[in-house]
Design a protein that fits this description.
Length: 292
């Protein structure tokens, strides 16, 4: 077996190596997803997210909102159930989704260190870079799943309670249901990308401590602090680079001719946060003295 097919066993002499088995990363990722989705806490968080569009849909059905009342898109739900997806995402982005992402991302590394399994994982053998990659991919997958739960439940609830049809865009133009569903898919992708920056921030914070609760709180605090700064008029000149500033930018996809350059720019900003936080997490984990 060539040297490129072997990995060094952590803690062993340099000449001691172990074979790198094909599909090892895939099995590690599958195990990580089983761990994430098997935890009762994470299942409960997804259930809470699923309730959000249900509650909004039932509330609108019982009491039709007037124009200007409630969150964005709320008054359009009765005309087309597809708008329940946009409303549910708008309601969830300020608190519910950051809470869910913060809990999962903050627990990713710190939870392993706190329970004493991190040291065991690194002696399997699994390199620290591979472990971080698996954790990052797992957190990103759960983040995407959280957004999809809201979107799919919102779509199903809206279809049952209000029906689906041609979509009247914010610009006043009307597009077919198929085109509306395609734009909805774009909205979901945009929101997932927007939340990945916070997920990466939580991953970095999780490498700084062995206290999972503290890491969760700090990750949620990142989103709250960014939103607080965004609400200060005197800081408008810096608002464009804040983590949460363009989270609701998906409304651009509901215009007759979306500003593609703006959407790309906002998404690249979120991905830049991902690159910075993941790099910091890698640097920290590589130099971290794992004692538990």
């Amino acid at each position: 077996m060539s040297g490129s097919e072997r990995v060094t066993v952590p803690g062993a002499p340099a000449w001691v190596t172990a074979p790198r088995r094909p599909g090892a990363f895939r099995r590690l990722y599958a195990g990580e997803m089983r761990l994430l989705l098997g935890r009762r806490r994470n299942q409960t968080l997804l259930a809470v997210l699923a309730v959000v569009p249900l509650v909004i849909g039932i509330a609108v059905l019982l009491s039709t909102p007037r124009n200007g009342e409630g969150p964005r898109f709320l008054s359009q739900i009765t005309g087309n159930g597809l708008f329940l997806v946009f409303t549910a995402l708008t309601v969830s982005l300020p608190f519910f989704l950051p809470l869910v992402v913060g809990v999962v991302a903050g627990d990713s590394i710190a939870g392993e260190a706190g329970t004493g399994t991190l040291r065991y994982l690194l002696t399997v053998p699994v390199t620290r870079t591979r472990l971080l990659a698996v954790k990052a991919l797992g957190v990103a997958s759960y983040t995407a799943l959280a957004v999809l739960v809201i979107a799919l439940v919102g779509l199903a609830t809206g279809a049952v309670l209000f029906g689906l049809g041609p979509v009247t865009l914010l610009s006043g133009d009307t597009v077919s249901l198929g085109a509306g569903l395609l734009r909805t898919a774009g909205v979901v992708v945009f929101v997932i990308v927007a939340l990945l920056g916070l997920a990466a921030g939580g991953l970095f914070v999780s490498t700084l401590t062995e206290n999972a609760i503290a890491a969760m709180a700090a990750t949620i605090g990142i989103a709250l602090f960014s939103a607080l700064l965004d609400a200060v008029p005197q800081l408008n000149s810096f608002a464009g680079v804040l983590l949460t500033h363009r989270w609701l930018g998906f409304g651009e996809l509901l215009r007759s001719v979306p500003d593609g350059s703006a959407l790309v720019q906002w998404s690249l900003l979120h991905l830049a946060y991902v690159a910075v936080f993941v790099s910091l997490a890698w640097a920290r984990l590589e130099t971290k003295d794992v004692t538990s």
